Amino acid sequence: MSASSVHANEAPLTLDQPAPRVLSFWDQSAFWANLGVSLFAFSGAYTVLAPDEGGAARLSIAAGILAMVVGTVIGGFMLGLAAVPGARTGKPAMMLLRGLFGAKPSYVPTVLNIAQLIGWGTFELIVIADAAEELFGGGPHWLYVVLAGALTTVLTIWPLGSVRVLRRFVTIGVAVALLWFYIQFFRAGLPDLTANPGPSGSGPFGSDWNLFWIACDAALAVSISWVPVAADYTRHSRGTRTAFTAAGGAYGLTQIVAYILGLFALALATGDGTYGPFLSVTLGAAFFLILVVREADQSFANVYSTAISIQNLAPRVDRRILSVALGALITVLALWLHMDDYFGFLGLIGSVFVPLLGVLVADFFLRRRGAWNTAADAPSRWGMIVAWVLGLSVYQLINPGDAGVWTDFWEGMRDRLHFTAQPWMSASLLSFLVAVAAARLIGAVTDRRARV
């Protein structure tokens, strides 16, 4: 395949080739809508109801739905903002950070992004294999992992073609499956959604309002996990406005639909497996198979963006080689690891990338208004790095999560500062606002000094 045909029809092979603007609004909407529907919404819905370290269900289903909607709406708006710079500049996400932090400092968030994407890709293969095992009543777990890894790798080699396939063939099937499960769950008769499974008398929001905001942050973190990769896809958008609407709107809508369905499944669960409520309804196995196979688009997006992130470090490495190597890596990891620390993983993602988005919003939209230097020698901008660290620190002080040594450090820092998180504090919102304010203030000081 010649370089010109690759440019015209597919994502470029290296970072120094231009990105074709070939994705329509419907291409992008279908892509982001499918990413919003994940088996994580079913297997991970419990993290919204039980966001405390003990894992005890402390929120009612109704309160969990409200927390999930609030978190997803905010996260969807943030995702839409993250989509705009890619559409405006034609550059992938980690390359954009050269303009925010400088070329060499951008390597730090790039490495963090690579690590979190490999983690997400691995988790997705585990979820696919677990769901397939439950769907078929057993079977070789390793085979399901290998098949999911192979499908992921194939999709990743032709990323823009895969996006078009999602629009033409997959989206309608997923929509029909979701509608079918909603109808069947309502026919089965949902229990009292306002009943609190937590301590007696604690009310629908649990014994502590802080749990509600932690639950919001858990839902928001799922949306935020796509923020550091949004530009990898919207750089192929035909317009900036369509990129914002497709990413923020389509993704947010379907994540709400999927998570509510997952919370309903929890209400109907009788201990017959994670996906028992889906498989027990009429034609449940057939429609659930659609969702299991479609889940590969999640791992595909993670692997492709990992390859593009690596290209920020090594711009001339062929993304196809990276895709095959990464597909093999996450397959091996999925055969070895288990999905135990999901909530702690989400907390770490949020603490890193929510404030990073705040700095990007302040600098790209409010200060420099899109004038962006993504060259390999872009100068270091330590002021923006300071703003990012400040936002990250605020997030961790409010919600240090459950991530071992990392959590121990921030809990010790809270003790030294005599800081106590209040029930009204949202780690995501406050860290975002602090990062925006710090970036604006530091940027204003830098501009004033430059004029003197």
Automatic annotation (TrEMBL):
InterPro entries: CodB, Pur-cyt_permease. Signal peptide: none annotated. It is found in: Membrane. The keyword Ubl conjugation does not apply. The chain crosses the membrane at residues 31-49, 61-86, 107-129, 141-160, 169-190, 210-231, 243-269, 275-293, 321-339, 345-366, 378-398, 424-443. Keywords: Membrane, Transmembrane, Transmembrane helix. One of its GO terms (molecular function) is cytosine transmembrane transporter activity. It is a multi-pass membrane protein. It comes from the Bacteria. The keyword Lyase does not apply. GO terms for cellular component: plasma membrane. PANTHER family: CYTOSINE PERMEASE, CYTOSINE TRANSPORTER CODB. Belongs to the purine-cytosine permease (2.A.39) family. This is Cytosine permease.
